[in-house]
Amino acid sequence: MFDRIVVALDGSTVAEQALAPAIELGRRIGAPLHLVRVADPTRFRFGANETALEYAALGRELEKEEAEAREYLAGIEARLSADGTPATTEVRRGLAPQAVVEAALPADLLVLASHGRTGPARWLLGSVAEEVIRHATVPVLLIRASPSSSHG
Length: 152
What we know:
Number of domains: 1
CATH superfamily: HUPs
Oligomer: single chain
CATH architecture: 3-Layer(aba) Sandwich
Structural class: alpha/beta
Shape: globular
């Protein structure tokens, strides 16, 4: 059915809520997980736009973000491995929605969690999940995060 299940993670407890369903689905269909985190310092530090991305790339900010992402994914991969769940990891550079979409190969399933923001909060903060759904060329499974984990 799917060659891999690509799970988009950003280091938050909200994003990690996509892991359990992805693990279960992977076990049922025999597909390994591919964990992706995007080094996107523009999202919180500069505002998400192409100019901010170019500015961030000039300094050491992006390298720091990538190192943090690699360390984070290694920890998740170790936990999964200990439970017998096969997984690979990948750190990508760029604006999060675009990089997540580009991480998926034609026979993949993309899995990600959403804060489920609505109204002004969504307008101001944007929605990575919405952009991924809009531009993905593979199926997307969106997990709505529970409110108790929205603080991560």
